[in-house]
Structures are given as structure tokens and as C-alpha cells.
């Protein structure tokens, strides 16, 4: 198998993040050869974080794309905001976040933020398979 991909478009709802996690699990479950459980958990965690950020900071809608390469999984989330994620000091007192983007960068082999000509951006993470 060279590559396999799926696109999942979702609007804001109470189950959007859960739906993205479920879509990622379904995608990963269909891979041959199968992905290791720990690697799959990492992909689902990163998808969850990228979608949460898109809903919180990216205009409320997103498109999730997952692509399997021979030695990696690419998770990409497009949203309507042109603003790139930024590293910041995590808020330990008021619950305003700051934990997710550093976590994604630690778990991923590489991350990228690409501004789109049609508007918005795509945030991608390349993860071990």
C-alpha cells in the first residue's frame, strides 16, 4: 500500500471532536498493515487537539484530512482563520489552554501551517505509523 486518504468535513456541534476521533479510529482500523495501538492512540489524540483548536480559534468549522503513507500518518485540519497556532505559557489557573499546540509538536515528527489562497489555513501533523 502506498497511500490511503479520507476527508471528513464537519460543522460545529457538541459531538464534533468526538466525531473526528471516531473518524480517525475508523480510518486507522482500515489500514493494512495495521497500525500499532500506541501509534493509533497518538494519531487520535493529535486529531482531537487539532479539531478542538479549529473549533475554538478557527471560525467554528473545519475539514479533517487523514492520509496514510508507508511509514507515517498525516493529519491535516483546515479552518477559516488565517491565524497560525502559537506557543504560549499554559494557563494553570483560569483554564484558557496553552497545552495542546506544544503537545502536538512533541508528538509529531513534523508540523506545518499553510495559509490557503482561498482563505484560512491548514494545520498538519506528520505522525509515526
TrEMBL record:
A Pfam family it matches: HATPase_c_2
Keywords assigned by UniProt, alphabetized: ATP-binding, Kinase, Nucleotide-binding, Serine/threonine-protein kinase, Transferase
Annotated Histidine kinase/HSP90-like ATPase domain residues: 15-124
GO molecular function, one term: ATP binding
Record protein name field: ATP-binding protein
Keyword Transferase applies: yes
Amino acid at each position: 500500500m502506498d497511500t490511503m486518504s479520507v476527508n471528513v468535513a464537519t460543522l460545529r456541534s457538541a459531538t464534533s471532536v468526538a466525531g473526528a476521533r471516531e473518524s480517525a479510529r475508523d480510518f486507522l482500523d482500515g489500514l493494512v498493515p495495521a497500525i500499532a495501538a500506541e501509534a493509533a492512540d497518538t494519531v487520535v489524540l493529535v486529531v482531537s487537539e487539532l479539531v478542538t483548536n479549529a473549533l475554538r480559534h478557527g471560525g467554528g468549522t473545519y475539514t479533517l484530512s487523514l492520509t496514510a503513507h508507508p511509514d507515517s500518518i498525516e493529519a491535516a485540519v483546515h479552518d477559516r482563520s488565517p491565524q497560525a497556532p502559537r506557543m504560549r505559557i499554559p494557563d494553570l489557573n483560569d483554564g484558557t489552554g496553552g497545552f495542546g499546540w506544544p503537545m502536538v509538536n512533541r508528538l509529531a515528527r513534523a508540523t506545518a501551517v499553510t495559509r490557503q489562497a482561498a482563505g484560512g489555513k491548514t494545520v498538519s501533523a506528520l505522525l509515526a505509523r
